[in-house]
Specification:
about 375 residues; mainly alpha; Methane Monooxygenase Hydroxylase, Chain G, domain 1; 13 helices; about 0% strand; transmembrane helix; cell membrane; membrane
């Protein structure tokens, strides 16, 4: 079991909400703790959006509770009707994310037993808002999330895993079931990495320069994810057509293996290039001068098809599947070249913004 920052921040936010409620001498601080749980978000920007929505939702919930409590009393049926009306209004104003806390506000206000109902409602509303404020403050200053570090580290480790499986698959060295299970796991991990990209995208810069750098970084990371998707597609095709791949003429099998080896090395070097770990003499990737161009690969493939038809060979089915594999490889290659262009452009415009990699747990 992992004790992550989110777990620690939740506990700290609840304690802080209790102390704030106690400092303001608000009754029932437990409701401040409950509000802090609902208001805590995984990013500072989401916390900012949440506190705006929660204020709106709690005002609506408090007003409905006061109106129904003053007009119809505090029976269980009236509470249920107030909840229904609150839900309808919240959905009308598209405040679905704040519904839970708004309903908590309705219930804690309509729990009134005796005394001045308006004063009771104001105190309960204030208690809930203290919890929301406490969660925002904790998220802002206590262990603020660093999503770029987590994002790049996750991309690097996941891409390394994909590259390993492609190298095994193209050499027919991986067991069929293991590759199938790994493909499922890699896709699941990719979704989690994509989630980190969305969280990083939501973070806001405070200066014009930081916003410009952030926009360029987002373009680079998005292309990293697209290229990762293409590499997973290559692995999937190698897995689906492993029998046809094994029946190909040896020269084609070697050609595919060598091409993928070059591309996988290229991909590894691009990740090093982004972190500034690649030597200047290797800014063009190793083996590029010996690499066949895409049109040359397709010419060789087309000549092979013509020869097979001329010889009335039965290898047409294998050639059809070879086209599927080659198309994925060439698509992967094009995206690698585009990623190289983006990384080069980013480093030229922002030479001091190389990603400084740290040892951090991933995914």
């Amino acid at each position: 079991m992992k004790l992550g920052a989110r777990i620690i921040k939740t506990g700290v936010a609840i304690v802080f909400a209790f102390y704030l409620a106690y400092w303001f001498q608000l009754p029932a601080p437990i409701f401040a703790g409950i509000a802090a749980i609902f208001a805590l978000q995984p990013s500072i920007y989401r916390s900012y959006k949440t506190i705006i929505e929660q204020v709106q939702g709690n005002i609506i919930g408090a007003l409905i509770a006061v109106i129904f409590g003053s007009a119809f009393g505090h029976s269980y049926v009236v509470v249920g009707l107030a909840v229904i009306v609150t839900l309808l209004i919240m959905m009308k104003f598209k405040l679905e994310n704040s519904i839970s806390l708004a309903l908590v506000t309705v219930i804690v206000i309509m729990e009134f037993q005796q005394g001045d109902f308006i004063e009771f409602a104001i105190l309960r509303f204030a208690t809930v808002m203290v919890g929301v404020l406490a969660a925002f403050i904790i998220n802002l200053i206590f262990l603020p999330p660093k999503y770029e570090e987590r994002l790049f580290t996750s991309i690097k480790y996941l891409q390394t895993d994909i590259i390993k499986w492609i190298r095994l698959a193209v050499r027919q060295a991986s067991e069929h079931t293991s590759t199938k299970q790994s493909l499922r796991r890699l896709r699941q991990q990719f979704e989690r990495v994509n989630g980190l990209y969305k969280l990083f995208k939501e973070e806001r810069g405070y200066t014009k320069k930081s916003r410009n750098v952030k926009q360029r970084k987002l373009v680079v990371y998005r292309q990293m994810l697209i290229t990762m998707t293409k590499s997973i597609e290559v692995l999937n095709r190698l897995h689906l057509h492993e029998n046809e791949l094994s029946q190909l003429p040896e020269k084609f099998h070697i050609m595919i293996q060598e091409r993928l080896d070059f591309l996988l090395t290229y991909h590894e070097q691009l990740l090093l290039k982004y972190t500034g770990k690649l030597k200047a003499e290797h800014t063009t990737w190793i083996g590029e001068e010996e690499f066949l161009q895409r049109n040359e690969v397709m010419d060789i493939f087309a000549k092979h098809i013509v020869l097979e038809h001329a010889a009335e060979s039965q290898e047409e089915f294998s050639s059809y599947h070879l086209l599927h594999i080659l198309s994925r490889i060439l698509d992967y290659e094009e995206n690698l070249e585009h990623l190289d262009t983006l990384i080069t452009s980013f480093l030229q415009h922002h030479p001091g913004e190389k990603f400084k990699e740290k040892n951090e747990e991933v995914i």
